[in-house]
């Protein structure tokens, strides 16, 4: 709320400064000057907010430059029409002929040039604000990724020491039990994934995130002697795609925490489908009525925040919480 109050205050002060500059440049602050200034001032306000609130956000990100030019031209022409209407209104309310309210080419072009100037000002404002918001979101995203890594590594005082220890245990266990050594290797890979840094864009290869899910499932299967009924289906190629790290694991952890996984008729179903630039991920499970598995995940509320930061207007998260079943469906537009 404070953010929007500050923004409103900034706009009010900006317009006030513009009015003062115009007023200080006047020879005399008479009714004629006020009428002319008001008739020219209100149209440019309309143009400014139409541009930053509708035209630039809607057309520029989609690179629809032709439609943008047409839209700006139409809005500018409408603002000129508003200028002549305000002149008629001022003359009617004052009972005097303060302004030329008939069509005049001089008045038309003077107002049109003023409109073009404020289109430039509105673009500069929108572009600067957009870059500032992108920078802020990037900082929040980096912080969210860091928090996710800390959450996944909590209770680990020295992760590197534990990782090296797991490598040692894997070597010792290999001659004794292949299954035990594979479980240790899976756990070691999970720690490696949690410790490694993401790329410059704060993302990792999608194939690594999927491998992380498989390791997580394999370790739980080892714990419960392969009695868990889990269907994990992957469709499409994972090559060339990236994703925010430790994003999908939260939904799987949630299923292990709250789900019943020992019913062959109702297995835990995990589906991942990649098509062109879209990712579809779903997790559905039967609810458990018994003791729940403890999870070290970052939680669904934090995942929602991370999605808003990393995929603004490029994701859909649907949670269906039924009486007996629980389902999470995620749709992402990949970079």
TrEMBL record:
SUPFAM superfamilies per the UniProt record, alphabetical: ATPase domain of HSP90 chaperone/DNA topoisomerase II/histidine kinase
Sequence ranges assigned to domain Signal transduction histidine kinase internal region in this UniProt record: 148-228
UniProt-listed InterPro entries: Bact_2-comp_sensor_kinase (IPR050640), HATPase_C_sf (IPR036890), Sig_transdc_His_kin_internal (IPR010559)
Gene3D superfamilies, sorted: Histidine kinase-like ATPase, C-terminal domain
Domain of life of the organism encoding this protein: Bacteria
Gene Ontology molecular functions: kinase activity
Pfam families with a match to the protein in the record: His_kinase
Residue stretches spanning the membrane: 41-60, 67-86, 106-128
This protein's UniProt keywords: Kinase, Membrane, Transferase, Transmembrane, Transmembrane helix
Name assigned to this protein: Sensor histidine kinase
Species this protein is from: Ravibacter arvi
């Amino acid at each position: 709320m404070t953010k929007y109050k500050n923004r409103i205050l900034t706009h009010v002060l900006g317009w006030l400064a513009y009015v003062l500059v115009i007023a200080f440049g006047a020879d005399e602050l008479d009714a004629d000057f006020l009428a002319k200034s008001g008739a020219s001032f209100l149209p440019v306000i309309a143009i400014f907010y139409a541009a930053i609130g509708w035209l630039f956000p809607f057309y520029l990100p989609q690179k629809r430059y032709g439609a943008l030019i047409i839209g700006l031209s139409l809005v500018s022409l409408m603002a000129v029409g508003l200028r002549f209407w305000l002149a008629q209104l001022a003359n009617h309310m004052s009972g005097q002929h303060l302004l030329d309210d008939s069509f005049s080419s001089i008045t038309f072009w003077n107002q049109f040039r003023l409109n073009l100037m404020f289109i430039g000002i509105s673009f500069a404002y929108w572009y600067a604000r957009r870059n500032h918001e992108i920078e802020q979101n990037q900082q929040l995203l980096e912080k969210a990724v860091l928090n996710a890594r800390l959450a996944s590594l909590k209770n680990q005082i020295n992760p590197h020491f534990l990782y090296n220890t797991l490598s040692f245990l894997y070597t010792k266990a290999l001659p004794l039990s292949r299954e035990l050594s594979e479980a240790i290797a899976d756990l070691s890979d999970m720690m490696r994934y949690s410790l490694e840094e993401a790329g410059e864009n704060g993302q990792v290869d999608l194939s690594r995130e999927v491998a992380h899910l498989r390791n997580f499932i394999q370790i739980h299967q080892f714990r419960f002697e392969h009695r868990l009924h889990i269907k994990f289906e992957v469709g499409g190629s994972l090559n060339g795609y990236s994703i925010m790290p430790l994003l999908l694991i939260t939904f799987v952890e949630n299923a292990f925490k709250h789900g019943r996984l020992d019913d062959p008729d109702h297995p835990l179903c995990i589906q991942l489908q990649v098509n062109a630039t879209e990712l579809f991920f779903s997790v559905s499970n039967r609810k458990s009525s018994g003791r729940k598995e403890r999870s070290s995940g970052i939680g669904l509320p934090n995942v929602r925040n991370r999605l808003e930061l990393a995929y603004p207007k490029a994701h859909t998260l649907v949670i269906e919480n039924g009486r007996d079943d629980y389902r999470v469906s995620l749709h992402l537009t990949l970079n």
